Amino acid sequence: MTIRVGVIGTGLIGTDHANKLVNVINGSTVSAVTDVNRARAEQVAAELGPDVGVFDNGHDLIASDVVDAVLICSIGETHAEYTLASIAAGKPVMCEKPLAPTTPECEAILEAEVRHGKRLVIVGFMRRYDPGYRQVKATLDAGTIGAALILHNVHRNATVPESFTSFMTMTDSMIHEIDTTRWLLGEEITSVQVAPPKRTSRAFPHLQDPQFALFGMESGVLSTSEFFANCQYGYDVRCELVGELGTASLVNPVVASTTTGGQDVDAVPPDWRVRFGPAYTAELQAWITGLRRGEIVGPSAWDGYAATRVTEFGVQAVRSGERVAIDYIEKPAIYR
Ligand code: NAD
Ligand code: ISE
Questions:
Q1: 276 partner at 20 to 30 Å CA-CA among 19, 235, 239, 309?
Q2: Shortest CA distance to 288 belongs to which of 300, 298, 278, 273?
Q3: What is the pLDDT of residue 256?
Q4: From CA 212, how far away is CA 227, in angstroms rounded?
């Protein structure tokens, strides 16, 4: 059985995912695309193949008989509307991060999925599929480094557009560390504090860059998180988990290495598409393989809700500089 996916939003990541679903992933095709920028959707459809329909809007695409599953890659503000419509149509849906920018929207999605009676939604937290992060988690779970004490995260982008704000540090970028921290440690984040370091001269005046956050966990483990939006030199994601008996760390994948003039020089990936390319592929393949078996495989709507909840308190912490405590609604049974 081939899963026919409808893609909402044919920008950067929508185009990448659609290409993979057609050319790389086993068991899927793209039957429909839509974007408010219709010319862009038409161009992407033409590149994907002759049988890809271009729809006027996301709701028509979700309702269409040619769509078995929905992939939402439009801007975050549209995610709740399209995720709720997919649940109402009874169709599986993968929503890029964030599940939604606000917790009331995420709670509406949880309620709709609970009313539906079984899971339909997964969220695009692709780092859970990165081989390095998986190895760190396997090492912790095997007990090799003993109990976790501290998690250190670093997330650097070469540059960001001028529209990037100090709050997007939390809602757009650190949301990845928030998810990996919850997933690696297997517990919720219960507090956040933000301490802005000295600013780089290479950022726009409105942007606090870099940014530094401290997340407290239920068990007392602390997780540090540096986000540097304009580090200049490339895309760099690091993680070190400190345990009672040792540490487990990501080793950056070497994209290319040059030896000359008495030096070994390793290339740094330019952006997230290169660094996490294999993780995006693994994430999509796991989703499609699950759907072909009648299963929903991937981070849940609860994971999406919890991450957004932390970013909301994170934005408060950016404003106040104070340590902010985080609470959650009760986790519904289908997510336990
Ligand atoms: P983008 O700006 O390149 O693409 C977004 C697209 O959505 C645009 O083409 C825009 O025209 C379209 N759009 C806007 N409103 C729409 C609507 N109502 N209906 C249909 N289309 C609409 O942005 P992007 O970088 O591709 O990001 C898209 C989403 O993916 C964001 O939520 C972003 O956070 C997420 N993202 C995730 C990762 C990751 O690592 N998992 C990486 C990049 C982006
Ligand atoms: C972008 O939206 C992503 O999700 C990337 O993974 C992240 O590295 C980047 O900072 C975000 O802007």
A1: 309
A2: 298
A3: 77
A4: 6
Q: For residues 99 and 277, what is the distance between their CA atoms, to the nearest angstrom?
A: 21
CA angle 90, 281, 87 (to 5 degrees): 10
Q: How far does Cα 215 stand from its chain's mean position?
A: 18
Q: How is residue 87 annotated by DSSP?
A: H
Q: What is the pLDDT of residue 155?
A: 98
Residue 330 neighbours by CB under 8 Å, 6+ apart: none
Compute the radius of gyration of the chain from its Cα atoms. Answer: 20
Sign of the four-CA dihedral 100, 101, 105, 107 = positive
Confidence at residue 106, expressed as pLDDT on a 0 to 100 scale: 98
User: Is 157 in contact with 268 (CB distance < 8 Å)?
Assistant: no
Is residue 53 within 8 Å of residue 32, measured between CB atoms?
A: yes
Alpha-carbon torsion 270, 271, 276, 281, what sign? negative
Task: Please classify residue 141 by burial: count the beta carbons closer than 10 Å to its beta carbon, then call 0-12 exposed, 13-18 middle and 19+ buried.
Answer: exposed
Ligand 1: list residues with CB < 6 Å: 8-14, 34-37, 40, 58, 73-76, 78, 96-97, 124, 126, 172, 272
Q: Which atom of ligand 2 is nearest to the CA of 229?
A: 10
Q: Of the candidates 110, 100, 38, which has an alpha carbon nearest to the alpha carbon of residue 72?
A: 100
pLDDT < 50 regions, the chain: none
- For residue 247, count CB atoms less than 10 angstroms from its CB and return exposed for 0-12, middle for 13-18, buried for 19 or more: middle
Q: Give the pair of three-digit tokens for residue 278.
A: 């294999």
Ligand 2: atom nearest CA of 97 is: 4
Assigned token pair, 60: 């028509």
Beta bridge partners of residue 117, listed in sequence order: none
Burial 15-28 (b: 16+ CB within 10 A, else e): bbbbebbbeebeeb
226 CA from centroid of ligand 2 (Å): 14
Q: What's the pLDDT score for residue 74?
A: 98
Query: How many Cα atoms occupy the beta-carbon half-sphere of 303 within 13 Å?
Result: 27
Q: Which pLDDT belongs to residue 257?
A: 85
Measured distance CA(234)–CA(60) in Å, rounded: 40
pLDDT value at residue 267: 87
